[in-house]
Amino acid sequence: MRVELFWPHGLQKAEKQFLVSMNDSRILNAVRLPARLNSEQVAALLNCHKDYIQILIRKNLLTPLGRPSHNATRYFATQSIERLLQDEVFLEQATNAMYRAVKAKNKMSAKKLGHLEQDEAA
């Protein structure tokens, strides 16, 4: 995806790309984080997949800024995320929530496969 924006003449191409999208490696190596982080950036800081951020929101472990609609980009306050990253209790609760989500997903998948195998055997 290419984003065309008006840039001052002094910025180099690498600086422009950095400002437009901070991917996982850039967010982890940033000297100063932006004030708001999107779900992918928070996932990189938590060392998890971006899909788990939705689970953490549902479990009230993370709170997005404002009241985004269900299909909107969710942003999080960097200050609160940094505070949570230092909280061992939060990290344990988040990890357990992710484990439970994977376990539930695998259980559902196994049920579906079980039903398919029974249908094929009949």
Span of the ends, CA to CA: 49 Å
Give the integer mean of the pLDDT values: 80
The CATH architecture term is Orthogonal Bundle
Strand content: under 5%
Extract low-pLDDT stretches: 1-9, 15-20
Radius of gyration from the alpha-carbon trace, in angstroms? 19 Å
What structural class do the secondary elements suggest?
mainly alpha
Commentary on this structure:
The chain has a single domain, classed as Orthogonal Bundle (Multidrug-efflux Transporter Regulator, Chain: A, Domain 2), CATH 1.10.1660.10. The radius of gyration is 19 Å and the shape is globular. It has 6 helices and 2 strands. With 122 residues, it is mostly helical. The longest helix is centred in the last third of the chain and has 34 residues, at 88-121. It has a two-stranded antiparallel ribbon with strand order 1-2.
